[in-house]
Design goal:
Length: 466
């Protein structure tokens, strides 16, 4: 059993703390936010993360997990101190705001009374390990202490963070002090995952490169989706066909409304910024970001096109299904829903919205007079001219399309259904009376081909030909 302190009780800090406690360690989770710690002590979680409540409850009860605002108490006797505080993008800039990390490093150093390893868990610019080490060594109250800094990037995806912690694809550790990295590795041994031990800068870079690669896959498939729309192919089947190739893999190839969240947008931007500062113009990363930004617009363009052109959204009522940046979370940071709602409001549309868990988050961005929040999908679609499925909540797979159609208004051509996550079979939704658009389902071309081959006596396809 090791003594661990985790600084920061965001989703990374809380999941790390609770999961290490669950592995049998004694963990103190520290945050300077008094209100948050009070809630945690009362058994209330400040975030929605499936499975975390049970872990927190079980380990708090067993005396392995505690919450505090007191550095002296949390750091005393800790062998390992994880820094898991926020590193947001600097307001109006692209670099990371390191002020929370710097403050945490100073406080840890002044309260440390024993040798310890400090582990950078937050995503920090390459070189931050050195920064933390310098700050700590400058502020140690007992200068003779042996304190090493190890980078241990997290690869937790929101909504699945507990599972990702307990079954990691790999654990990455980087340090100038290899022995310290090996001591941290021991904490992870029960998880039986491959452990990569490397230098500090490389570990920090592995995190950025991993997120940038996954974001690139998403922007890639979104660009392919746009091409599919024009050429008449179906991107869902294209992705499935590509995914069987093990060199490509079938993950992160869902075309949609682009990536959001607190990680990909921030990390791709930060990596591009680091490259720029080092004198290299990051062409691919720039394209990834541009495609992602444009992708959100696709939903609005398709909707406006169906409703009669760019100005057609004025006085229309639109249902937005899903507000969180993805399923299984109440997080709306950089969520596609934000841009979509902004554009709808700007265009003069009335917005009704539903999300299984993110409504409270949304209400902080859009008060009730701006957006009408509803109890379920059908209540949301009531009287609407169009619906946009924005978030990939699994429950939207089970939408009763007939019921949805019945409550919507739409003109003689029927209400519009924009499937921003390609959940549905286009033909099935059209059969229910909707005007359906997915992302990259090849509809534009197929429609125009149908027009050109309209005379009844002409077969629309020649056997054996596409
Ligand atoms: C991401 C990474 O997946 C984690 O490995 C990483 O640790 C984390 O960032 C982080 O740096 O902290 P997360 O942002 O929680 O995790 O969410 P993802 O599941 O990766 O999804 C990100 C965005 O991409 C979502 O908006 C999602 O809707 C979108 N996405 C994902 C797609 O549009 N298509 C896909 O095929 C997959």
């Amino acid at each position: 059993m090791k003594n661990i302190c985790v600084v920061g009780t965001g989703y990374v800090g809380l999941v790390t703390g609770a999961c290490f406690a669950n592995l049998g360690n004694r963990v103190a989770c520290l945050d300077i936010d008094d209100a948050k710690i009070k809630r945690l002590r009362a058994g209330e979680l400040p975030i929605y993360e499936p499975g975390l409540d049970t872990l927190v409850e079980r380990n708090t009860r067993a005396g392995r997990l505690r919450f505090t605002t007191d550095y002296a108490e949390a750091v005393a006797g800790a062998d390992f101190i994880f820094i898991a505080v926020n590193t947001p993008t600097i307001a109006g800039g692209a670099g990371a705001d390191m002020s929370y990390v710097e403050a945490a490093a100073r406080s840890i150093a002044t309260h440390l009374r024993n040798d310890a390893v400090i582990i950078n868990k937050s995503t920090m610019p390459v070189g931050s390990g050195d920064l933390v080490s310098t700050i700590v060594h400058e502020h140690l109250t007992i200068p003779t202490l042996n304190v090493a800094v190890v980078s241990n990037p997290e690869f937790l995806s929101e909504g699945f963070a507990v599972r990702d912690f307990q079954h990691p694809d790999r654990v990455v550790l980087g340090s100038v002090d290899r022995a310290a990295a090996q001591r941290v590795a021991e904490l992870y041994l029960p998880l039986r995952a491959p452990i990569v031990i490397t230098d500090l800068y490389t570990a920090e870079m592995i995190k950025y490169a991993s997120n940038a690669f996954l974001a690139t896959k998403i922007s890639f498939i979104n660009e392919i989706a746009r091409i599919c729309d024009l050429l008449g192919a179906d991107v869902k089947e294209v992705a499935a066909g590509m995914g069987y190739d093990q060199r490509i893999g079938n993950k992160m190839l869902n075309a949609g409304l682009g990536y959001g969240g607190s990680c990909f947008p921030k990390d791709v931007k930060a990596l591009a910024h680091m490259a720029d500062e080092a004198g290299l113009h990051p062409q691919l990363l720039d394209a990834v970001m541009k495609i992602n930004q444009d992708q959100r617009r696709v939903a609005i363009e398709k909707l406006a096109m169906e409703l009669g052109g760019p100005d057609s959204l004025r006085d229309k009522t639109i249902a937005v299904l899903g507000l969180a940046f993805k399923d299984n979370t109440d997080d709306m940071r950089e969520a596609p829903a934000i841009d979509i709602i902004n554009w709808l409001i700007e265009a003069g549309a009335e917005v009704r919205a539903y999300d299984p868990v993110a409504v409270e988050t949304a209400q902080k961005l859009y008060p009730d007079w701006q957006v009408t929040y509803c109890e379920n999908e059908y209540d949301t679609a009531r009287g609407c001219d169009g619906v946009i499925l924005v978030t990939e909540w699994k429950q939207f797979h089970d939408l009763d399309l007939e019921r949805l159609h019945d409550v919507m208004r739409g003109d003689e051509k029927g209400p519009v259904f924009i499937d921003g996550r390609n959940f549905f079979d286009p033909a099935q939704v059209e059969q229910m009376g909707f005007r359906y658009h997915g992302i990259g389902r090849g509809k534009a071309r197929r429609k125009s081909v149908q027009h050109r081959t309209a005379p009844a006596e002409q077969p629309s396809t020649v056997p054996g030909e596409r």
